[in-house]
Amino acid sequence: MVSKVGRPIPGRVGRSALSGDGSGGRPGARHGVVVALVAALTVALVLIGGVASAPFADTVHLGETAIAIPGVARTPPMGWNSWNAYGCSVDEHTVEQAADAMVASGMREAGYRYVVVDDCWFALQRAASGALQPDPTRFPHGIAALAAYVHARGLKFGIYESPNSRTCAQISGTYPGSTGSSGHEPLDARTFASWGVDYLKYDWCSPDSNIDRQVSAFTRMRDALRATGRPIVYSINPNSRVPGAPPGGIYDWSGIGTLWRTTNDLLPGWALHQGPAGDQGVSEILSSTVASAKRAGAGHWADPDMLEVGVPGVLGTSYPGLTEAEQRTQFGMWALLAAPLIAGNALPYMNETTWRLLTDPAIIAVDQDPLAAPVTVVPGTDEKVWRRTLSDGSVAVALWNNDDSTATISIPLARLDLPAAEGFTARNLWSGAHATVRTAVGAQVAAHDTVLLRISPTPVT
Question: Catalytic site residue 119?
Fold first, then answer.
């Protein structure tokens, strides 16, 4: 369990998530890289060096209006995933701690529900029956018992797999074995359902990114999940560092996945400058994700990757971590995009700044707004002004400063497509300050920061 100011509550927390690896509290990195920067570079070479076996061929019809899995995710899912903080060192005690912390910190009451175990949870071999089985040392009580532990706390349980023969960590050589779901989809879906799984993260992890093969693979597991009759959120990632734009950002995957990743991996940095096929920072994700976010709606959500809020970077690398302003931008802009809010920090050890940001009710209300209207960038603002209509008729407006110095950002109200009214009230969602406005809104915005406003017609008195 955890106190709201980041001090572990005695009696529950065991080994520190911040000890023993010299990584500043981040014992995991993308694709199963645990500690060493050298390993991270090796993985990048392995995956960036892959070439798709065939060019993209959009011969399948995507963008269907059907929902992938009925009855789930009417609003963007909120939860926690083990990867950013723990990587391949995840174990059942860590996951139990995260579930306890989600309750004790008030995150559950704020709307967070899913506790998701990412890559590296499985034994190196399937059982004689062909079924997946957990690593017996790190998950000695089994996945069903872990799911029951999570469910007993009013939360939902998630797990990870890949549609190919190997997962991301196995492809990189970070984790041994070959236990992907390829050829085992019906059996794996039944196994997950029998364990009480509520959320499946299904990660492509292959340099072979022909769109027809991807659609076929993701559809097979979707159909297998449907056949179980259990309402399981189906989170897919079709991106695999191929040259050019990620397939998750090109095509509309609604009807195939409950949520689909629109970008390559986000790491804790502002701008990583690795190009569209490499890891990305927050500003790069935002500059590329507006078009795909327009395809989102109730039951199908565009996913720009997990939150890096409260996730330390690694000094001396290209992943330096996010400043408070940059974390505010990620959380606020993800909410404006109606993106899934999947925390990645070590929950039992978060400080008060991280806790206040992740549980901010005004920002979460924007993310969870039931109208699910698309976000748009106001033309002619150099991507500095974004807006989205909310269900009560108000409009959420972001003043985003992607520059490296403080900037004044303003916009006439006439350009925000507001409802007709004699006046408006603009509320700063970070500070709660509000003012009556009639002609324009604006603010001085620090470098890499975002001012998030909610503009409503002023009631007639």
Answer: no
